[in-house]
Amino acid sequence: MTRAEPSAPSDETGDLAADPLPGWLAIALVTGTSAAVLVLEILAGRLLAPYVGVSLETFTGIIGVILAGIAVGAWAGGVAADHIDPRRLLPPLLLLGGALAIATIPIVRTLGDTSGTGGGIRILILTTFGFLPSATVLSAVPPAVIKLQLLDLASTGSTVGRLSAWSTAGALFGTFFTGYVLVAAAAVTTLIVIVGLVLVASGIALWAVGRVRKVNEMLSLTAVAALSLFGAVAIDSPCETQTAYYCLSVLEDPTLDSGRTLLLDDLRHSYVDLDDPERLEFWYIRRLVDAIEVETSGPIDIAYLGGGAFTIPRYVRATRPGSEQIILEIDGDLVEVVENEIDFDRGDDVEIIVGDGRLSMRELPTDSVDVVIGDAFGSRAVPFHLATREFIEEVDEVLRPGGIYAANIIDGPEERFVEAYAATVAEVYEHVVVVRGPGPLQGFRGNSALIASHEPIDVAALGERLAADVDPSDTPEQTADPDRVVGEIVTGDALVDYVAGAEVITDDFAPVDQLLAASS
Q1: Which of 67, 265, 370, 476 has the fewest Cβ atoms surrounding its Cβ within 10 A?
Q2: Which residues contact 86 (CB under 8 A, 6 or more apart)?
Q3: CB 466: neighbour CB atoms within 10 A?
Q4: Looking at the record's lineage, which domain of life comes first (predicted)?
Q5: Separation of alpha carbons 342 and 309, rounded Å
Q6: What is the pLDDT of residues 418-436, one digit of tens each?
Q7: Per-residue pLDDT tens for 268-285?
Q8: Strand order from edge to edge, sheet including 399-411
Q9: Are residues 278 and 318 in the same domain?
């Protein structure tokens, strides 16, 4: 049997035995560090959400940066293991990796408040500074462990294969366990800190057994971990509640005691006046209510894709007693916050279904509602499967003859997504109206609204309500300003020109994030 020569010991450590690590310990190290990297990758999306939202760009940036860290770490760890005894490398790698994992929290929070508003570039900046260091350091552990175990050249292939397989198994475990269990069990920051502390403790324990590093070196790295933990505690989170889907906060209106604003990630999503449910603060909410008021009368059956702060359900309850309402909301924690902190009583007239909007829509009977309100699109978080022609057809099945579908859309000044969405809805409905909002009309990102039906829509009545629109938060001077922009209605031949050349969004082709990026 041919044996490889053991690495020469460092002068600082003296003579070291050439024996490899116990098999269980080698497996635990490669599995655990790979799992930790993937846990951090999954949690990165939630930690970044308050600053960059949740989109395909966000996850693309995170995955790319983490993969870069894994590649660089694997290379650097292998090179280092060829020049330094791996037993000297492993304790500081674990300790430093844990410290850097904890440091992701203060780094992202600090840079997130100061790094501007650029989309893809901002995502890369936050991910690179926040997560690349920890991913790189932790990914250096497996090659160091493998180097230490390669004492028998005749079994090199099986040794590398076995430990590589365990490393991949750790990554898989970290992915599935985080996504299916951990995110629903504890706050994201708590999970990151726990991962970091476990790594730090592992590094200290490994050092205590072998004592292959000087005490002052380990104390220095422990101080880094302590500093990271202090930063994680000292720098406040922008979230009041971290759910599996949102970083959310409920803000009190400083000018109105009964006013509440729901903040989802980095966007003001909904506003509610607890004393006056007919007060509609947001432009897009007033446009969706316009559709209800113009196209329906008396009690109605209405379904909502997305709940928010339940602003329109409150309005309908106050103005259309006897109406039956169904809210489809994917985030059960959000529902709980709205009920407990924004005083929503679902009563007997409101049913709330927690689950994916498309799957939940299929639970509704055919021809069962008069109105479907779509409020599931954010500026960065657009569930593409709720924007496709196939889904619009499913909405149509739920609507009664003559029913209306009204949706809120956020887009940039180029309105690429609005155009494509209007073209998609027009594939299903004969009558489509787009109400372009003040934001796009003035050259910045903002809300627009879309209304669709198989029956003619009273565009004149919508126009009258739009022309008379008054924002409750406007001053008398703003309301009287003849140049204020309240919106523009696009329908008929103008709509044909508006959507000319726009792509129809389908389940098979839904470049929603790219359309939004092109409009910014």
Answers
A1: 476
A2: 7, 144, 145, 147, 148
A3: 18
A4: Bacteria
A5: 7
A6: 999 999 999 999 999 999 9
A7: 889 999 999 999 999 999
A8: 350-354, 324-329, 301-305, 369-374, 399-411, 446-453, 431-436, 488-490
A9: yes
